[in-house]
Design a protein that fits this description.
Elements: E1 6-7, E2 11-16, E3 24-30, H1 35-51, E4 56-61, H2 78-90, E5 94-95, E6 98-99, E7 105-106, E8 114-115, E9 118-122, H3 124-129, E10 134-137, E11 148-151, H4 174-183, H5 190-212, H6 216-236, H7 241-269, H8 281-295, E12 300-302, E13 305-307, H9 310-324, H10 355-363
Parallel strand pairs: 3-4, 6-10
Antiparallel strand pairs: 1-2, 2-3, 4-9, 5-9, 7-8, 10-11, 12-13
Helix pairs in contact: 1-2, 4-5, 6-7, 7-8
């Protein structure tokens, strides 16, 4: 196919080239209404996928749904739903998460029929290159479809919260750093002392980790470059003993760094259903990208005003919950708990926790998860 845009019955395809990054394919579609035409449309997409090797984005109005929840009533064509799902699987496409909305089309009746017809799909290699995208709906001013806006621009770099890394437990100097940081804080209030000690430990571990391991990805890139140069050199001459020794050490070091990167990515992905070794680093990174797209807060609406900057959103969230906490609301009805719950002795609930109870609670925590906002996982506790 030529690199200029070309059109088929229901789609327009072009190759997108940006100032930075590799080129990728873009296909914009408008799906037909009749069932027979929909089957031809899906075959058309299969042929386009063959003609678009490499990173590929597929978007538009498909006039098809994937799941029951894509429509607000039970009038569904499950045969077409199954065909559409098989098409997505055959083309190895992943749907971009739509933030804040469930439907993209309305028949403008009362009551309305709402359907999720407009979608954005992409291949895994496109997602690897554009993992920080944000998809949302705009206002449907003159159309019965809500326009989709896909923002691929870098977002504002917010302060990174502390995350305890599991592999720290096996690094030399970890226990000394924790003991030093833990003993550096003294406070008469036991609750405040615990919070301050956790904060001090988090700061010490972060600086210790930066000094001891540095940036793993940068080290892996440097190792790959040096190994490549040694491989090229040995095609023309015999490597000297120091060069051969360094090449072997670099390969051993690279395997260790790759293992650390996989462990970090797995912890970030928060997948508990897999055993160690069941998936690779790329899979974990893609899972992290999906979590980011789904959970990242890009803006807040307060009294009709949209707040998008990080500092403003943090202040708005703090003010909202600060007003809720400790506020007594006037209630028109109340419950007489004495009529619902039989009286019993509850003095045992005021008893202090025993060491065995605390130990059992810590041991029952799920692995690789932090029970609180301080970032320390069950492995650390």
């Amino acid at each position: 196919r030529p690199l200029r845009p070309w059109s088929t019955t229901n789609a327009i395809t072009a190759k997108v080239t940006t100032a930075t990054g590799a080129p990728w394919w873009l296909t914009v579609v408008y799906g037909p209404q009749e069932d027979a035409d929909k089957i031809s449309f899906m075959q058309e997409l299969c042929e386009i996928g063959i003609d678009c090797p490499g990173p590929w984005m597929l978007c538009g109005d498909f006039n098809l749904i994937l799941r029951d929840e894509d429509k607000n009533n039970g009038n569904l064509c499950r045969r077409m739903m199954g065909r559409f799902r098989r098409l997505v699987n055959d083309l190895a496409l992943k749907e971009m998460y739509l933030n804040g909305r469930r439907f993209t089309w309305s028949n403008e009746q009362s009551p309305p029929t709402l359907v999720h017809l407009d979608r954005v799909f992409c291949t895994s290699d496109w997602e690897d290159a554009h993992g920080d995208c944000h998809l949302r709906c705009l206002a449907a001013v003159v159309s019965d479809h809500w326009p989709l806006l896909l923002d691929c621009s870098p977002t504002h770099a917010s302060h990174r919260r502390f995350h305890f890394e599991d592999f720290w437990l096996w690094l030399e100097g970890f226990h000394y750093t924790v003991v030093t940081a833990w003993g550096s804080v003294q406070d008469p209030d036991p609750f405040r002392r615990l919070v301050l000690r956790l904060q001090a430990t988090a700061r010490k571990l972060t600086s210790w980790s930066a000094r001891s391991k540095g940036n793993i990805r940068d080290k892996m890139a440097i190792s790959r470059e040096l190994i490549s140069r040694f491989d090229k050199a040995q095609e023309d001459r015999v490597l000297s003993p120091p060069e051969d020794w360094l090449r072997r050490q670099l390969k051993i070091s690279y395997l260790g760094l790759a293992s650390l990167e996989r462990m970090i990515a797995r912890q970030r992905a928060r997948i508990t259903t897999l055993k160690d070794g069941d998936a690779n680093t790329t899979f974990f990174h893609r899972q992290c990208s999906f979590h980011w797209q789904k959970n990242h807060i890009h803006s807040l609406t307060v009294d009709g005003h949209v707040i998008a900057d990080q500092e403003g959103m943090a202040q708005a969230a703090f003010s909202h919950f600060d007003e809720l906490l400790g506020s007594a609301l006037t209630r028109g009805h109340s419950l007489d708990l004495s009529q619902l719950i039989e009286p019993c002795d509850l003095t045992s609930l005021d008893a202090p926790f025993s060491p065995d109870e605390i130990g059992n609670a810590v041991k029952s925590l799920p692995p690789r998860k932090a029970p609180g906002p301080d970032g320390f996982t069950a492995e650390f506790l």
